[in-house]
Amino acid sequence: MANEEEEEEASGCISPSSFTLLVSCPSALSPSQVSVAFCDTYDRIPHPDIILENSISQIWEQRAQNNKSLFNGKKFRYGGYTLHNGSGSDPEHHLCIHLGLTDYRTFVGTNLSPVWERFLVPSEDDPVLCQHTSSPLGNGAVVETLDKKILVLQRSNNVGEFPGHFVFPGGHPEPQEIGITSHQHDKELTESTNSDVSREMFDSIIREVVEEIGVPPSSLSFPAFIGISRRNLNVRPAAFFFIKCSLDSKDVQQFYSSAQDGYESTQLYAVSMVDLENMTSKMPGCHRGGFALYKLMVDTKKSVT
Known about the structure:
The protein is an alpha+beta fold. 29% of the residues lie in helices and 26% in strands. It is built from seven helices and eleven strands. A hairpin with a 4-residue loop joins strand 9 (224-231) and strand 10. The longest helix is centred in the middle third of the chain and has 27 residues, at 187-213. The chain starts with 18 loop residues before the first strand and ends with a helix. This is Nudix hydrolase domain-containing protein. InterPro entries: NUDIX_hydrolase-like_dom_sf (IPR015797), NUDIX_hydrolase_dom (IPR000086), NUDT22/NUDT9-like (IPR055295).
């Protein structure tokens, strides 16, 4: 595991493309090596400043008045991780991701607040730093085609965040997909829920790739988990996966023309590693961090072979 930060702009402002690697797994973990602890322990802690805390509702109400289509859906909240290094009879690494529950309303009122930095607690420990923010866990996929190209989308100018920027396909694992609306405190239910949430982590990224790029699920390999990156601006975290696609880039372009979520992006690029690196300066920080995680994976494979 590694922790890495991009330098901030010389002006002292936080660059939209700066990032921190919260979790790095260059060996690329299979679903059997990744588990989830879903518990209210990892929920957001309300801020002790009542005026700041009340601003969450005020910001949401203002946004909702201006945009009648806003929906306050549940999201999984990132609350840290535990890494078990392989040893003895079990040489594999095992990662447990700590997830709580949050919602889009709280995300808008904390991470996306004009005064979002006031919600942070000075700390080198990320869960402490972000204990008062919503921090919903997003996801992204580095998809490699049969002809060894990486798929990158250019965001539409109609989207709310980072219009026109380059991103990997992705979105969020969704609590409602597995029927979660609140926390369960029954031990047997908790174990079952943890398993369901872990599976949703991997199922959701396949779902996002299929919806945003349009390729059939059968053309995609099982996702391999490569880490969690956080955009330093708004401290927004995202889990990243590596997926192989059995189609070449020309076939993928054909599928993209009828993608379900095509309105979110205007163009699909299939690029080499060198071209991709040149595009990262126009990526949101969490996605630029996704590229860094992918590069670590590629470099690790080269050193092994």
